[in-house]
Write a structure and sequence with these properties.
Blueprint: H1 2-18, H2 22-30, H3 36-39, H4 57-90, H5 94-106, H6 110-137, H7 168-201, H8 204-225, H9 231-256
Amino acid sequence: PFGSSFFCLSRFRQRLLRRPPRFAVCTAMSTQPLRPEEGQTRDALGLKPLTEDVPTEEAETTKYLKMLFVGVPVVGQVLAWLVYLVCGKLFKQQHLYDKKFSFLQENQLGYIYLSVWLLSMTRARLVVNANGARAPARVDRPDQHVYKVMDSSGALKDAAYVMMADTGPQGRFNRAQRGVFNTDETLPLTLVMVLLVGAVFGPVVVGIVLLIGYGRITFGLKYKESCAARGSGFLPAMIGEKLLEGLTLLCSIKGIFAF
């Protein structure tokens, strides 16, 4: 009986080894012609088509450096100081702000605000790094990674890259998930800045959070429909988040320097 069982197991193992791997079926399906709506934006490898308009990594990096380290911080500071002046003078909050900034100065708490702002800039530099590499890689959103079967020879050697499904129910699900993850990526810093800015500006921070919440929800809902539609929610969310960032820097300035 033992010899018979061993013989059966050996035959089963031989059949299993001769059977093609299951992923080969998926790969064969992935190399079929793209549907018409997909073929408009992807080449045979699943990437955005290679054209003369594809920017270099250096050009994209420079563009995002100017955006995230010049344009956005300047706008954030203009909005932050405008909020400070309007609430202080028009809504008679100046005496309260002066008392809170004096407390920050006396206890050297302004450096906490500065540190959080610097961490925000650290993340911004990493975003620049990733966005600079995206365009020359010809990877469109919502894809965040590119996967490839690492086979040096055989039928899979030149197989298409494995990308997110971007059509039908699966595409809607992927984009909806990306809307959640994009919010999650910014949430830790946003929460910290809400606490720090709220300690000084009180009810003002509630209005900012409502703006961010509206933007993020709209962003996620629109993203599910299409990548192009997500901008109507992304803009108000960015205004709110960058205003928080600007107020954090303002608090660090007022909390460190006496003026």
